Amino acid sequence: MNEYDHEEMLTYFTNFDTNNNGVLEYSEFAELIKSLGLNLSDEQLQEGFNKIDTGNNNMINFEEFMAWWGEQS
Fold first, then answer.
1. Which of 9, 14, 66, 73 is the most exposed place for a label (fewest CB within 10 A)?
2. Which CATH number belongs to the domain containing residue 44 in this structure?
3. Which of 2, 13, 1, 28 is nearest to 64 (CA)?
4. Does residue 43 form part of some domain?
5. For the chain, the helix, strand and coil percentages under 3-state DSSP, each to the nearest 5
6. In a domain, 53, yes or no
7. pLDDT value for 18
């Protein structure tokens, strides 16, 4: 991934971090997924969130987000 992609993804991540705490909480993650046009059930959203949250702290940091995004590419 080049620097432009990294900066673009950081901007995207930050746009959904509505409380500006540097991480995505579940509700912010759900909004991000909806913005991608994915229509997932609450159960599917929770499963996805838990998979991405490798730190198991109920938050997705930018590094976790990027690791997941890289898997999607």
1. 73
2. 1.10.238.10
3. 13
4. yes
5. 65, 5, 30
6. yes
7. 98
pLDDT in tens, 28-73: 999 999 998 999 999 999 999 999 999 999 999 999 999 988 887 6
In a domain, residue 63? The reply is yes
Residue 39 token pair: 């229509």
Please give the single-letter amino acid code of residue 35. Answer: S
Write 41-50 long-range contacts (CB < 8 A, 24+): none
Domain count, the chain: 1
C-alpha 61, offset from chain centre: 8
- pLDDT for residue 26 is more than 90: yes
- End-to-end CA gap in the chain: 10
Domain that residue 54 falls in: 22-72
Is 13 part of a structural domain of the chain? Answer: no
Give the pLDDT of residue 71: 80
